[in-house]
UniProtKB/TrEMBL annotation:
<keyword id="KW-0472">Membrane</keyword>
<dbReference type="Pfam" id="PF01822">
    <property type="entry name" value="WSC"/>
</dbReference>
<dbReference type="InterPro" id="IPR051694">
    <property type="entry name" value="Immunoregulatory_rcpt-like"/>
</dbReference>
<keyword id="KW-0812">Transmembrane</keyword>
<feature type="compositionally biased region" description="Polar residues">
    <location>
        <begin position="238"/>
        <end position="249"/>
    </location>
</feature>
<feature type="transmembrane region" description="Helical">
    <location>
        <begin position="187"/>
        <end position="209"/>
    </location>
</feature>
<protein>
    <recommendedName>
        <fullName>WSC domain-containing protein</fullName>
    </recommendedName>
</protein>
<keyword id="KW-0732">Signal</keyword>
<feature type="domain" description="WSC">
    <location>
        <begin position="41"/>
        <end position="131"/>
    </location>
</feature>
<keyword id="KW-1133">Transmembrane helix</keyword>
<dbReference type="InterPro" id="IPR002889">
    <property type="entry name" value="WSC_carb-bd"/>
</dbReference>
<feature type="region of interest" description="Disordered">
    <location>
        <begin position="232"/>
        <end position="251"/>
    </location>
</feature>
<feature type="signal peptide">
    <location>
        <begin position="1"/>
        <end position="21"/>
    </location>
</feature>
Amino acid sequence: MKFTTLLGVTAAGFAASAVAAATTTTKMGVEQPSSTPIYMQPVVQGCFSSSGDLVYNSTQAFNSRGECGQTICQAMGKYVGASTEGSKCYCGDSYPPNSTLVDDKYCNAPCTGFGQDACGGTGYWTVYNTGLELYGVPYANDTTSTTSSSSSSSTSSTTTLAGGQTVFVTQTSDTTAKKSSTNTAGIAAGAVVGVVAVAAAVGAGFFIIRRRRNRQIEEEYRRNQAVNAFFSGGSGKAPSTSGSHSISDSRLDPVMSQRRLSDGSIADNEDYSRRILRVTNA
């Protein structure tokens, strides 16, 4: 009697344990934790409340992470795949905006092809990295988590996903290089224009000074010509400087003209250069 009772209790215990185990292992619509991307393997990157730039592809009767992320999106050469409402598959080349990353509990719709996994939810997307681009996939329209480096053409960001996994993302971009090239070209053009302007100013100054100098020389020459013409009696020849500095006059007495006159003598007030007829009373 006691033995039969013991067997009944033991059987009941095993049955309860089996039911509990079955309930635990068959829990449906569980979002897989985010993890580091793996080459050529679809890996969950989190639950998002927006599809971002992802484009709807198809509704799959047997949708799953492998079906949407690998069979469909990876085969198309897309970097990102996403599932929503259990059966719908989206593909693209960028994650949804990082600001739309939410807790994994919101992605709770069982995949139609593998019900244990979650394939998004109503208004939520389970996003996969398809394995084609591991660390260069950007976030759509999201600049809040990126830090630009002026010395390179890449943008780096550190993102902590809902599962606690930290992912370092490097996005290659030639925007900085283009800006740097544009700035360099602008600086070079400005320098050339500045040099040309300085050279033009120097040339103009030299021309003005030279023209002014030539004008002064011409004026001085004209004055000298006028003086020479005055002293030469209009003949255009400069007066002779040899011998006496006095000017010859044909009306002068030749004898008296050769007489040396002393400066300051008492006879200087008399004009001895001409013979004068004087009348006296005898």
